[in-house]
Inverse folding.
């Protein structure tokens, strides 16, 4: 149920959208000097999402303190957090008349709170300008300051708390050397306990050489820490320096993994070749 790598299979080819909504989203983001993970990570869904008038905003700059080999975001020494960013983000949300906003960031191991206060300030400012806005935050692992970061974020509730495990543990040394699988699971569990009643979410990529039994174990591990939502998508090489794709998983196999995730106990599952962390995140029910 996989395809050989090399030529892109037909189910992974899609046209580049245009139209008013797409152009309006691009112009709004550019005019306010805002970053998106859509652009910085070369997300294949950028055209579709922008055409729907949605985008996942990347805060705290576009330079990461880590160098994960599945990602094309630049690595190096980031600039200090921009105090004007929350206001610009709120202006964007108001101009685009958003109802659901996904906020993510690069890893900021250089900051004592891992960037949690910038997440909090962004949510507060958007909420002030756009009452009724719903939020999802896709956070880094807050290495070394997990408890402090979650305490800071508690002042910005409610939101969906998302943190991605990205791949199976055996591939961490190759794909996510700066991360730690157990730390990611622990953060998701801490968030579930701290924010009682709020959903937690994670994501895993397929096509990096993982085995089915390893994927199954990740699903069980995530459910073991109370994670309710998951996205499962195809890894696509975002830059020439990124890891190569080992296999292209068919849509039928993704449908099979969706059924397995539901059987394991997830309440919200998005499993498809183009599924990404924030893909159709605004849907109340992704079944």
């Amino acid at each position: 149920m996989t395809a050989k790598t090399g030529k892109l299979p037909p189910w992974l080819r899609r046209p580049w959208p245009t139209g008013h909504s797409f152009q309006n989203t691009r112009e709004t983001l550019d005019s306010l000097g805002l970053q998106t993970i859509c652009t910085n990570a070369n997300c294949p869904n950028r055209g579709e999402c922008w055409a729907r008038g949605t985008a996942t905003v990347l805060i705290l700059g576009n330079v990461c303190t880590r160098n994960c080999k599945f990602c094309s975001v630049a690595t190096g020494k980031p600039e200090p957090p921009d105090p004007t960013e929350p206001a610009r983000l709120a202006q964007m949300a108001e101009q685009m008349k958003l109802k659901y906003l996904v906020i993510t960031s690069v890893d900021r191991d250089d900051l004592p709170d891992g960037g949690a206060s910038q997440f909090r300030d962004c949510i507060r400012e958007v909420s002030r300008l756009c009452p009724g806005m719903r939020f999802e935050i896709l956070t880094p692992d807050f290495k070394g300051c997990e408890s402090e970061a979650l305490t800071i974020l508690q002042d910005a509730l409610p939101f969906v708390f998302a943190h991605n495990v990205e791949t199976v543990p055996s591939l961490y040394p190759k794909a996510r050397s700066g991360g730690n699988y157990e730390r990611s699971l622990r953060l998701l569990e801490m968030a579930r306990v701290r924010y009682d009643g709020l959903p937690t979410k994670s994501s895993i990529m397929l096509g990096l050489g993982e085995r089915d039994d390893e994927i199954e174990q990740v699903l069980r591990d995530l459910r073991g820490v109370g994670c309710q939502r998951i996205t499962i998508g195809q890894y696509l090489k975002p830059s020439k320096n990124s890891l190569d794709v080992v296999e292209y998983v068919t849509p039928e196999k993704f449908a099979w993994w969706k059924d397995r995730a539901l059987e394991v106990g997830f309440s919200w599952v998005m499993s498809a070749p183009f599924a990404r962390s924030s893909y159709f995140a605004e849907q109340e029910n992704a079944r």
